[in-house]
Records
---
Amino acid sequence: MIKQELPLQEGNAAPDFCLPTGGGGEVTLSDQLGSPVIVYFYPKDNTPGCTTEALDFSALAHEFSELGARIIGISPDSVKKHDNFIAKHDLSILLAADVEKSVCETYGVWVEKKMYGKTYMGVERSTFLIDQNGKLARIWPKVKVKGHATEVLEATRTITK
């Protein structure tokens, strides 16, 4: 497997993006400035790890909101798939569709992966904590889902003090 380093580093300005969301909406990162933003990239709706991660962030959404933070989940799935995923699991977080994978590429999470001897391109589960000024405060590459949302919440608390 090719080892790929994330092109972004903590302290860098977070690259802006504008992606479609459910209900015909869209989310633009620069519109969120002034508050912390958690942008997490995940491979696919309705898969076990991705569902657990979305449920964990949803369970803590109120606590993130109390800190003024917004959570945006991004995957290459379509808005329709996101809407179904949100409805099926009663998610309370915003999901954005990067079907062209341009934001995934910009953030360095669209990578070569290998499973069962096959090589393919896919999303490397990663999270970016962006401070109120639009800088990358913390980056988690190759995320392991268990306990991750809580760890991100704690990191968010540290930048909002």
---
Amino acid sequence: MKKIGLLSDTHGYLDPRLFDLFSEVDEIWHAGDIGSENVLCDLESFKMCRAVYGNIDGWEIRAQVPEHQRFVCEGLRVWMTHIGGYPGRYAPSIRQQLLQDPPDLFISGHSHILKVMNDKKLGLLHMNPGAAGKNGFHKVRTALRFTIENGQPHDLEVIELGPRL
């Protein structure tokens, strides 16, 4: 069993409360638009961290993390990327590969809209944790916390970090 803290779109701002909110997770996953090396360094110093770069991330971050991560965690096949879309509207750049080899859990960021939904056609669960940072059009900063056990996600929690301002 692993506990996961999932966030995206920090845009250089890491809410200090995340260290308490993620104190009991085993891994932190960041779905892109990290925004600064300091955010990535702080996360990696705190917990095991898996991350992908987003469209605003510069070469410093792109040199440290990939655009896509495909991995297995506790028997759950995961694909994490920043610009991925969502069921029924997947990004053109990944659509074909997603259709040919769907994961069990597809994670993306970019939209700043928290969304968790099943794709019955592909048999996968899609998660977008929304935006944890202060830049963007979102009104409330969000993240997710969940558990993976025997290839299944459980105990999904939405974390509201307060207004964007």
---
Amino acid sequence: MAQQETQKQDVRIEQNQQLEQNQKEQPMPVIAKVLIIGVVGGIFWSMLAYCAYFFHFTELSPSLVLQPWAIGEWKDGAIGNIISFLVIGLLSILVALLYYALLKKRQGIWPGIIFGVILWLFVFYALNPIFPQLKAVKELERNTIITTICFYILYGVFIGYSISFEVTEMRRQKQAE
């Protein structure tokens, strides 16, 4: 009798473990989270940059990214801005992967700030010849320079904090197992 009770209890435990609600969820790989962080960061910060452009804090619109490749006036309209948000989101994946490769173990705000400033310098100095409508930095308005540097710093901090948090969480979960 006791053996039957034990067998029934074993069957119930096995059935309970097979239920979907009782199965342990596999965590998303950290690289997938980095890709998501990149896309979300790129779209979010380019939309905020468009708001800054709309309110004349900067003379540069996110649609600047389309200038070398797209022909026509459509790129300066609503559809051009929406497409530029998506393009910047996709380019931001590369930026997030770069941060992950170089600085994933760095904690705090400073790695993100430095990363954002270096990214700004790269875009406005090294990539300047690619964008025909992008003036040299010394020809840009002071508001544009300050606003864009601030956006790049905030973007760098967003990418940096998000990635370092995910890496730290994955390490913590592995240690707990």
---
Amino acid sequence: MQIAMNTVVTITYELRDSDGNILEASKDPVSYLHGGYDNIFPRVEEELHGKSVGDSIELTLEPADAFGDYDEELVQIEPASAFPTQELKVGMQFEGEDESGDVVLYTITNIEDGKVIVDGNHPWAGERVLFKASVTAVRAAGNEEVEHGHVHGAGGHHH
């Protein structure tokens, strides 16, 4: 079966930075609903369209096609007293809102003199990345999966 609209695609993948370092790799195969449901990078989905089990892809994603451009406005300095815990550490993450009310995950990048620097950018924002994937399974999606816009069961979402 070929990958097409409303198929459940299972892949193994590897994501590398521009220096060839592995940023992330699937330990187990992952599944997504194919067909513009925003469950995977759109350029990756385009590249996988029409492929079958055993096929592989490799493509370079510019920041706009992956984790976005780095946005300086998502870096903020806050007083340590603004945080719900006194034991702040670099790398801790907190949810916040941007100007439009969207939830943003902020990561503490520095703590100094009672001030905390938080960054709402994805850690790989602004990075060009290499995405490699191998197709391990393809099946027709169930009606409920199409209605919900995501995969159910093993490798997908559970209700």
